[in-house]
């Protein structure tokens, strides 16, 4: 999976989002913000977690925020642990640095941190460590079917 599948995902759903591809890496919040010319908070980072007894999930948050362990545990009824790069690739079909909530290999619950709502536009990755797509937080909610949570600080 990757950029091609993300573009097909949008096309199949008649969604008018343009995937941007870069010659330089956008694999980290800092690199993506630099490539796009935006502040780090506008980068919608996708994190993959395993929660004991509750399986795996994707959490998308503003690039300048960190997960608050207490809020996470209270919200998801358990401690979360980050998936390994191999587990991430296996579950999402996307490489680390390009993980996004679109065109997933396996269906995963998607959660959107309220930190994203501070921005008119956000930029999640688009299936590769050198891609991004511009959308509003409301667009991200609609496209992913994600649920809003407050788990970052």
Quick structural gist:
By secondary structure, the chain is of the alpha/beta class.
Explain this structure.
With 153 residues, the protein is of the alpha/beta class. It has one domain: YbaK protein (Alpha-Beta Complex). It is built from five helices and eight strands; from the N terminus they run H-E-H-E-E-H-E-H-E-E-E-H-E. It has helices at residues 3-12, 29-36, 69-76, 85-92, 137-144; strands spanning 19-21, 43-51, 55-62, 80-82, 110-113, 123-124, 131-133, 147-149. Strands 2, 3, 4, 5, 6 and 8 form a six-stranded mixed beta sheet that branches. Strands 1-7 form a two-stranded antiparallel sheet. Strand 2 and strand 3 (55-62) form a beta hairpin. 39% of the residues are buried.
Topology record:
Elements: H1 3-12, E1 19-21, H2 29-36, E2 43-51, E3 55-62, H3 69-76, E4 80-82, H4 85-92, E5 110-113, E6 123-124, E7 131-133, H5 137-144, E8 147-149
Parallel strand pairs: 2-6, 3-5, 5-8
Antiparallel strand pairs: 1-7, 2-3, 2-4
CATH superfamily: YbaK/aminoacyl-tRNA synthetase-associated domain
Question: How do the SSEs run, as a string of H and E?
Answer: HEHEEHEHEEEHE
Strand content: 15-25%
Rg of Cα set: 14 Å
Number of beta-strand segments = 8
